Amino acid sequence: MIIILLGPPGAGKGTQAKKISEKFSLPHISTGDMLRDNIIRNTALGIKAKSYMDKGELVPDDLLLDIIKVRLSEPDCSSGFLLDGYPRTLAQADALGKILDNTGKEIDVVLNIHVDDEELINRLSGRRMCSCGASYHVLFNPPKKEGICDSCNGELYQRNDDTPETVKNRLAAYKKLTEPLIDYYNKKALLHTIDGGKDIPGIFGDIAKVLEEI
Question: Which fold does the domain 2-26+80-116+178-212 belong to in CATH?
Fold first, then answer.
């Protein structure tokens, strides 16, 4: 089974991707993770990608596509995979389609986790992080002591990209670049929209129902 996971920042794609991967025994392929892995392993592709990332530039589509080609050719992807974070644009969707056509594979389903903008802003702007890696939320998952990490007693902070104004900019970019994919895959009769306003088990229950019917 080949699954593409769509959704705006804060929709909970990472959480749901992990649960899908575990239940359906599919490799979870995240473009961010792939980039970091290639950089850590100092591969030729990783060195090229790092040269762009170090300058704060986006990794070009052709380079990202090369990394994805390599990953999808690995043995654990032979029976299917879950793509999280790719494609993000119509051009990337077309490129992915050509890769799959060349290997005789096809996308089975595109899951679009939908959450209202107001809810997304509340989710992301309320997130607090600790340098130890722990994550909290001022409303949904607050620390025992305000501003202090439960695990290491470190001081919590808000990521620069989690401020309300920045979140609005991130959502605007998503709508411009990625939302057209919703129509693209809907026309191919692959799209299933999931209500991301539910709690985590509720969202996963809806996702599992869709996947079990395929």
Answer: Rossmann fold (3.40.50)
